[in-house]
Amino acid sequence: MRRTSLGDAICPVARTLDEIGDWWTLLIVRDAFQGKKRFSEFQKSLGLAKNILSARLRHLTAKGIMEKRPSVNRFGHNEYHLTDKGRRLRLVLTALRQWGEDNLFIEGEQMLVAHDRTNRPIARLQLMNQDGRPLELDEIVVTPGRKRATKRRVR
What we know:
The protein is 39% helix and 6% strand. By secondary structure, it is mainly alpha-helical. It has one domain: Arc Repressor Mutant, subunit A (Orthogonal Bundle).
């Protein structure tokens, strides 16, 4: 089945999913946040077939989410680093993580997300209005047709 591009959709969620690609992509980005940089580190962590991992890394590089650089420690090897665009996915991964913590774990061990090495947990993400007041989920609506003049599309 051929994949349909959502890159020109009016919905930011659709465009984002078009850019991200699939769940393997977010797992690669997650691993990059955990310090993995080399192809072999991603492959070992994810257990992903080399051809699939190679395609995902090419996609992430082409979309400007990661960049490929020569390794400073190993001559002839490359490393993958998150770009600023890629690092901005931290918020998306944190939101997914918190949703999973709230809905997919009854008991048992989970990985902890802390804001520093002292293991102090980060606050739960919360949507707020422009004045900083927390919003309830039923207060949020999506309306069509408003253009954002302050941000341009980053490739």
